[in-house]
Amino acid sequence: MMTIGEAAAASGVSAKMIRHYEAIGLIRPQRAANGYRAYAEADVAVLRFIRHARDLGFPLETVRRLLALWRDRNRSSAEVKRLALDHVAALEAKAASLRAMAASLRHLAEHCHGDERPDCPILDELEGLERVERA
Amino acid sequence: MMTIGEAAAASGVSAKMIRHYEAIGLIRPQRAANGYRAYAEADVAVLRFIRHARDLGFPLETVRRLLALWRDRNRSSAEVKRLALDHVAALEAKAASLRAMAASLRHLAEHCHGDERPDCPILDELEGLERVERA
DNA sequence: CTTGACCTTCCCGCCATGGGAACCCCCATC
DNA sequence: GATGGGGGTTCCCATGGCGGGAAGGTCAAG
User: Fold this and answer.
1) Angle, alpha carbons B11-B9-A93 (nearest 5°)
2) Which residues form the HTH merR-type domain (chains A, B) (predicted)?
3) Is the pLDDT of residue A20 over 70?
4) Taking CB atoms and an 8 Å cutoff, what residues of chain A touch B114?
5) Domain B1-57, what fold?
6) Which partner from A52, A80, A97, A116 sits 20 to 30 angstroms from B10, CA to CA?
7) Alpha helix (H) ranges present in chain A?
8) Mutation test of the interface with chain A: which of B106, B107, B111, B123, choosing the one with the most A Cβ atoms within 10 A?
9) Could you tell me if B56 and A107 are in contact, meaning their C-beta atoms sit under 8 angstroms apart?
10) B6-25 average pLDDT score
11) pLDDT at residue B129 above 60?
């Protein structure tokens, strides 16, 4: 049994977040006589699981479902796969959206002199003049 | 002079957000005798500017600087361009991070049967078994 | 004069995380 | 046995960018 600090060091999850995960019901450590949270190896494994899932960008609500599936020996891998692929789609949609922003902004910036003069197609676009160079 | 609802309709920014932008000092509408906010065309132009900048993913603090540059007739386009290109870099970094997550998760999912059986490399990875198929 | 559509301010929620205050606990050292 | 420091505990606040909603004021049309 370890303290929260030890569990944090062992799992790579900050003590702050470990308490948070407990508050939202992802983990339920025991309590020592002095009131300190007491973590077993299995708890640390859960924390590592959570961290890995977070590293892949899963929202905590999905992490909760993944944890449930992980613990369920009768799970179907199809269900896990569905959660994963849904998340892949969400990630790719978000990435595509960001790349689209980057591309149009980069395009605008390419047409900006970038010198001491005030003329700037970027500001023109933001103002809503619907871009000069499109004409 | 228009009310906040009219300004919202004209600018495409919700009344809620218009008040928020005012609270953080991006816009300063006048007040009518009855206490209602009163927006001129110039205010609506500011709101549209904000919306366009937000559509390109600029954080509000950067929008604030862009607005200042927009209003400054002696601005240098170089400064605008720098803000823009910094933001492009941030967007691309974020997009790359998301795509990396999507790619590794997709890879894991490809090796998941996705049937009624419980075996699942996705869960194995999350557990931290460091992926079987890498061997 | 009521109704309803608008306006006002203020508070709370999301998501995931960090910072910090105020207090308790335990161990080592003097 | 006192003290100090490095834990732990709870609780509140902040981030960013928005939404929901309550409680109340205002105005125009019926």
Assistant:
1) 65
2) 1-69
3) yes
4) 77-78, 81-82
5) Multidrug-efflux Transporter Regulator; Chain: A; Domain 2 (1.10.1660)
6) A97
7) 4-11, 15-23, 41-55, 60-71, 77-110, 121-127
8) B123
9) no
10) 97
11) no
